[in-house]
Specification:
The protein has 260 residues and is an alpha+beta fold. The protein folds into 2 domains: 98 residues, no CATH class; 145 residues, D-Maltodextrin-Binding Protein, domain 2 (3-Layer(aba) Sandwich). Helix content is 25%, strand content 21%. It has 7 helices and 13 strands. The strands form 3 sheets. Strands 3, 4, 5, 6, 10 and 11 form a 6-stranded mixed beta sheet that branches. Strand 8 and strand 9 form a beta hairpin. The protein starts with 8 loop residues before the first strand and ends in a 9-residue tail after the last helix.
Length: 260
């Protein structure tokens, strides 16, 4: 986006936005919403039969994370481990959220960090502070359906475990959620610093109208769960990312760390 400052739109996550904004003044246009949420979380995933009960228990454990550019997979958990004084053992850059989950599933790591999105419940809606995992009594029923959606009875799992059902259909039986991070701003549609103002607003207005689950074109693109999975979009301001900036500064993350 910085290389082409007057004509570039990027669909980028919180960490990517903060770096791009710092580098050349990239500006946010809209933030994604998924099922009413404009935030998501880091999930800390461990083997279901492990003895880990708190993050402090992970001292010396092998940590699998997607890559150093992942907001939920690396930035937030690295900061949390540092704040708690938890010294991990080996670290494994797995290459993606699914690969991180599979590292725990296959016994190659003790803990994985990956995205967590709120589950669908039989009644009502999940709220921050609720248990992040499905109830123990439905774990044995968890399996992907014909559409590769991960269901546990009437609960639908929407965290990173749902991305590995082709390779690990019993992933919920084998991998549980230890805890969650604080909330993280969702991914954005952002604009290069010199993008024309009027055209920018035209695009924002068009996208707001386009993002609709009843729109078949959206259902086959941005609204598709196997693509972006957006169910709505909303306004977002630069100051919404100040918490991410603080973590970037605390961790001393640079472009080189992100694989420039």
């Amino acid at each position: 986006m910085c290389a082409s400052p007057d004509d570039t739109i990027g669909f980028i996550p919180a960490l990517g936005y903060v770096i791009a904004n710092q580098l050349c003044g990239v500006e946010p246009g809209l933030a994604a919403e998924r099922r009413g949420w404009n935030v998501y979380w880091t999930g800390f995933f461990v083997a279901r039969d492990s003895e880990f009960q708190t993050l402090e228990d992970l001292a010396g454990a092998t940590w699998a994370y997607p890559d150093a550019g992942s907001t939920s997979g690396y930035l937030y958990p690295a900061s949390i481990f540092s704040d708690l004084g938890v010294e991990l053992g080996e670290t494994v850059e797995a290459g993606g959220h699914p690969q991180s989950i599979l590292a725990v599933y296959n016994g190659q790591a003790d803990v994985a960090t990956a995205f967590f999105s709120a589950p669908l419940l039989p009644e009502g809606s999940w709220a921050m502070g609720d248990a992040p995992d499905v109830p123990d009594e439905v774990v044995d029923s968890c399996a992907p359906n014909a559409d590769d959606e991960l269901w546990c009875g009437e609960y639908r799992v929407l965290d990173a475990r749902g991305t590995v059902t082709a390779d690990a259909p019993d992933v919920v039986q084998q991998v549980r959620i230890l805890t969650l991070s604080k909330e993280i701003p969702n991914d954005t549609m952002s604009f290069s610093p010199d993008f024309p103002v009027e055209l920018r607003q035209t695009i924002i207005d068009a996208l707001i109208e386009f993002i609709d689950l009843e729109n078949p074109d959206c259902a086959n693109s941005l609204c598709n769960e196997k693509f972006y999975g957006w169910t709505a979009v909303g306004p977002i301001a630069d100051e919404n990312f100040d918490g991410v900036r603080i973590l970037v500064a605390q961790q001393g993350i640079t472009l080189e760390d992100l694989g420039k």
